[in-house]
Amino acid sequence: MANYTLRHAMPGRCEFDMISPSSVYRDRTGHVSLWGMGKLEQEATTICGDHGFMSSPRGDHGFMLSPRDIAKANDISFFLISEKRIVSPAFRTKFSWCGGLEKYRVKFSVSSMTPRSIGTKRVFSDIDTGGWFFKSENKLVAVNVKNRLSANLPQSYYESMSELVDHEEEPLITSRQDTLTPPDTAFKTSIQTRYSDLDFNSHINTSEYYRFCTDASSQAAVSGYYRHFTSDIVKYPVMMTEATFLGECGPDEDLVIYTWQDDDDFTKLYFAFYLKEVKIFQSCFKHDSKISQDKVISSL
């Protein structure tokens, strides 16, 4: 967490520079993985949280209200319900193993606010040119930690955070993701969750769902299930992801994963996760149609 330089911080806005990701964020090709990017976003979120990004500028007594203050007073926490990511063609090269250590800029803003949820947007960009590499937006819902049901935010917090919503940029999430139902021909696999997959909300960390998707799609591609994608799927850069988190999952659970391809656009892959026959997660990945030529390690 020490490898960053804060540029600007206030409730609803945060901007800082970070050093390029280390090898722990990379996949077997030497590039930053989807789940590694999720971990990187979580690290950036922690930096923002430490500098008051999610704090209300005024509380009932004129003091700053943080998410921890809200949780303590109202028994609520924030759970992720939807997320969308868009990746620039320059991202894979910029964040490759051979890219060397360099800094990039991270900007966080509040993208939406309702009495029960908050949306945040983050942009990773080039310090020198200002060109972006990675954009994402997520929506977090307030949940009562005792009964795990949706809850209202304190009225003062909702009102003051609503004033901080950034209306200058177009949101990435413009509508709810359509319901994804696996066809009879979908590729089916399974995975057992681990205790090490948990986060501090005592359920599977959101970045692990991206890892599960990538493992399933690699298995499907290598087995010859997909059209066009006949090699390991990690060789094809991901250009967009859209995900909806429908339920929770704990450790030592058997998840059944379905993946299939869009009938018209072969670059779109769909995923649906089921826990005891209940769908808890769905997503769409859009890949580049060409294998990346940016080789950073030799093939084994």
Describe, in plain words, how this protein is organized in 3D.
The protein is α+β, with helices and mostly antiparallel strands. It has 2 domains: 1-169, Thiol Ester Dehydrase, Chain A (Roll), CATH 3.10.129; 177-300, Hotdog Thioesterase (Thiol Ester Dehydrase, Chain A). The protein is built from 5 helices and 11 strands. A hairpin with a 2-residue loop joins strand 4 and strand 5. Helix 1 (34-50) packs antiparallel against helix 5 (206-222). Mean pLDDT is 87; it is low at 59-63.
Secondary structure: elements and pairs:
Layout: E1 4-10, E2 13-19, H1 34-50, H2 67-74, E3 76-87, H3 91-94, E4 103-114, E5 117-126, E6 132-144, H4 155-162, E7 187-192, H5 206-222, E8 238-245, E9 254-261, E10 268-275, E11 278-287
Antiparallel strand pairs: 1-2, 2-4, 3-6, 3-8, 4-5, 5-6, 7-9, 8-11, 9-10, 10-11
Can you tag this structure with a few keywords?
300 residues; alpha+beta; Thiol Ester Dehydrase, Chain A; eleven-stranded antiparallel sheet; globular
